[in-house]
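Problem 12. The chain below contains 214 residues. Write out its predicted structure in token notation.
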Amino acid sequence: MSPYHYHSTRFVTSVSEPKQLPPDTGREVAFAGRSNAGKSSALNALTGQRQLARISKTPGRTQMLNYFEITSNRHLVDLPGYGYAKVPEAIRRRWQQALEHYLRQRQALVGLIVLVDIRRQLTALDRQLLDWSAWRSLPVHLLLTKADKLNRGPATASLYSVRRELQKLYPLVSVQLFSATSGQGIVDLRQQLDDWLFADQASDCAAIDPSLSD
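Solution.
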């Protein structure tokens, strides 16, 4: 179990334009993926809160950058889903511009969680997101979501296939199986977030008490 209090995470604000973003300080990790890939379900499972992030069966429901505070200056950010969405083209372009600006410019952003339905292949939009991350040397952790929809053998085969593809082109990307329904992979996800969001605090504690680093 992660020592940090994801269960205390709370919603703080939504923004639709880069100028509305909170101060660019502290550390934050963003959740990104195609519409209906399971971002909201993952956030709810991670924090143990059923309604922290709104879940909709309609792709494209998340239309803004939604900020959630774990502790002071530590945030999770739910990004608008990309790809298929029942919204006007002008709004979709605005999302795209805001997303690109955020990923390229945000200094508080220390890691990206990318969600891909395990029953789907990586798309051109997924790869574009990975390209942006590689350009700024931003680490990425990929969740193959809805792993409960496949039997263990096919799920493992899909994991290995995606891992081989990523190792060739995106060495800063790690990948795991995940299911918000069954709880598979939640502990691993929390550990990854701990490393990105709280590593400096762990180092500070170890400096005070070296036994904490053992």
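Discussion. Residues 34 and 174 are 18 Å apart (CA to CA). Students who got a different answer should revisit the alignment rule from Section 12.3.
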